[in-house]
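Appendix B, example 12.
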Amino acid sequence: MSGERRLTDAPWLKPGPAARVLELLNADGEEARVVGGAVRNALLGLPIDEIDIATTAVPEEVIRRAKAAGIRSVPTGIDHGTVTLVVDAKPFEVTTLREDTETFGRKAKVAFGRDWVRDAERRDFTINALSADSAGCVHDHVGGLEDIAARRVRFIGEPERRIAEDYLRILRFFRIHAAYGAGEPDRASYLACISGRAGLMGLSAERIRVEILKLMVAGGAIVAVNAMADGGLLLPVFGGVAYTGPFARLIGIEQALDLPPDPIRRLGALAVAVTEDARRVASRLRLSNAETKALDSMGHRWWRLAGMDEARAKRRLYRLGEDRYRDRLMLAWARSREGSDAASWRELAGLPARWIAPRFPLRAADFVARSLHPGPELGQALALAEDAWLAADFPLDQSSLDAIADQAVARVTRERKA
């Protein structure tokens, strides 16, 4: 199957760091090619973020050649044959060809080899197993070019076997399909994912998190998520109900508002109805503190944002801040079943663009001047005054502020004497 296509536009075909690494490794009987995602994206005309390189040279030889050429090498995964070469501040993962000698999940024993076919056959999907040489000739040993043309994501060989080697490949299948596939997922691969779904329970939360958050923002996320829900593959991930309708509607709302896709916002639409959901999902995916707080805020009484007038919306925006206000509002909108063209929701969503919340103008000194001493009563008076200031529609004139402060002090004083 080798040499069926030739690339004419790829970074390694032009003078630069990638071409320099290939030239270094393509000498004295050794061969190097660009592999994986970079070749896939070049064929699809998509941006290329990372360039990974495979070589027949063993790691020690890669390091030796790099040192002789004045190139920095980092043994990032030398036990598995990977050395990172840094050229002009750009890293390139260089991995020696491998073949499985014993297969038992992720801990499969591998040996370094020189067979490009065997190396391709041990990868996950056909479109990820393509390689390209320094002249742009694409080498296809597993039918990846045909699948690229069809925008089809398909496991190499027997899907069940590929999945059993690493159950994370179930999530990768849907994530890669969402990013690069078209139409419904490949049937044989899909059925194998369903059969192997129990294996998801044994994966670490950190590995699941990476795949799920990437899936959330992929172009075909709606199709992939619906397929996962139909196959019972979301329950083992989230441990609860998945809401595919609000998820799809939120994506439509993002697009209508010209907002970039946000993985946590989309995750909230898919998996969060109340704050308990947010905490469960955050725990299962080991989300960061910031991500957990954002998800928790989305789930907190989002239904109260429906039907707000502008005065109430301003108070919500003041309390929540722009990002939390927008995310919670969009969740409420997505769950309302109203379309992305609903005028009332668009008006509420546009509030941060036309109104900037003022700062609360009263300070502790204003209450100390009214004979309150620092302590719990002072904090209570500040909170009461802020509530009254919001209810009065954010007045800034001194007479209104004095009246609000006086009323707060009077109430605290009454409660102390009661």
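Strands lie at 5-6, 32-35, 52-55, 72-77, 82-87, 90-96, 98-102, 109-112, 131-132, 137-139. The first strand starts at residue 5 and ends at 6.
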